[in-house]
Design goal:
Layout: E1 2-4, E2 10-13, E3 19-22, E4 26-28, E5 34-36, E6 41-44
């Protein structure tokens, strides 16, 4: 996953949850698909089970960790 945006893009990992990304304008997933970021903060899925990849849909709360 790659992130694009101004120099002040920050990523904070939430224990057992998503990565919170602040300041990005573009997320490029592992397949090279570009996802425009239109919000100041977005949650990126880390459990790989979201139905809205790359965005977190809170599935991690309902499934056991791998």
């Amino acid at each position: 996953m790659r992130l694009s945006g101004p120099d002040d893009v920050t990523v904070r990992s939430c224990p057992g949850g998503p990565d919170l990304v602040r300041g990005a304008t573009l997320v490029v997933d592992d397949d090279g698909v570009q996802h425009e970021v239109t919000r100041p903060v977005v949650a990126i899925c880390r459990c790989d089970r979201s139905s809205r990849m790359p965005w977190c849909d809170s599935t991690h709360k309902a499934v056991r960790p791998r």
